[in-house]
Design the sequence.
């Protein structure tokens, strides 16, 4: 079954991907954190679930070139528009979270970044990730933390300034451990981690957010700046940092 968000994502994909291309290092920290949870050996094959425009695949390619030569990824996403820009994968597949078109044990690992807050049935999505990873592999997720300023920004400011709105389902570390365990995962762990999105200036941060979240063109610059101030954005070492509180979690199949 395709999700209630399908149309929304097809409409948003091009701007979201353009934002990640314009500022390829802005979200580098969250990519590093989730990739650290899916250690790969040379030649390994991993699955990116809710791959979008391939942000994680591209970051992984760079990180793995030395540590795991020959490692390759498959990207899957419900939106062909998002996935159309995703170049860093050995293969791309249009598929919904809860019906991954792969045989059991097809991958050495599976990861999902900033995507499962759109899952109507997160346990079903995680059960699918666990099913397609072989014994001895690892499943990892990273998403915005429930109750955080980032969650409020998404479900309030972004919700109010986009035609389609934003109604993310966010979770705390204990919730993720519960979901991973209930889906059949073993040795589940999760932690809340503060990451920072990094820019050269506050103006760049505003431009990135405007495109990434597909804000309505009439969204005023001063209200966006106020919202980013509300998130605690600050200048440091000639750059500008936006705090973004996330939860990273993992389990073995
Ligand atoms: C915020 S984007 C994150 C993309 C990418 N992981 C990243 O970190 O840049 C969320 C992605 O989840 C996908 N998505 C939403 N609901 C989905 C579903 N039910 N099944 C598969 N993908 C879905 C969207 O199409 C979108 O590409």
Sequence:
């Amino acid at each position: 079954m395709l999700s209630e968000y399908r149309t929304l994502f097809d409409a948003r994909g091009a701007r979201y991907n353009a934002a990640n291309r314009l500022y390829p290092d802005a979200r580098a920290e969250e990519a590093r954190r989730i990739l650290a949870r899916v250690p790969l050996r040379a030649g390994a094959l991993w699955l990116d679930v809710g791959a979008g425009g391939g942000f994680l695949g591209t970051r992984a390619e760079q990180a793995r070139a030395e540590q795991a030569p020959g490692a390759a990824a498959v990207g899957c996403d419900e939106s062909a528009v998002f996935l159309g820009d995703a170049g860093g994968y050995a293969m791309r597949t249009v598929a919904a979270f809860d019906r991954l078109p792969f045989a059991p044990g097809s991958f050495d690992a599976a990861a999902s970044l900033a995507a499962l807050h759109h899952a109507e049935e997160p346990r079903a999505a995680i059960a699918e990730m666990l099913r397609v990873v072989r014994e001895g592999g690892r499943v990892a997720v990273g998403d915005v933390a429930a109750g955080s300023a980032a969650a409020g920004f998404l479900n309030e400011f972004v919700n109010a300034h986009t035609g389609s709105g934003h109604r993310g389902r966010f979770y705390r570390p204990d919730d993720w451990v519960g979901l991973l365990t209930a889906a059949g995962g073993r040795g589940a762990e999760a932690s809340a981690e503060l990451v920072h999105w990094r820019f050269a200036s506050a103006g760049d941060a505003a431009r990135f957010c405007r495109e990434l979240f597909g804000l309505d063109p009439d969204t005023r610059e001063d209200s966006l700046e106020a919202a980013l101030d509300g998130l605690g954005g600050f200048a440091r070492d000639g750059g500008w940092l936006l705090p973004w509180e996330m939860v990273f979690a993992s389990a073995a199949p």
Remarks:
- The mean pLDDT is 93.
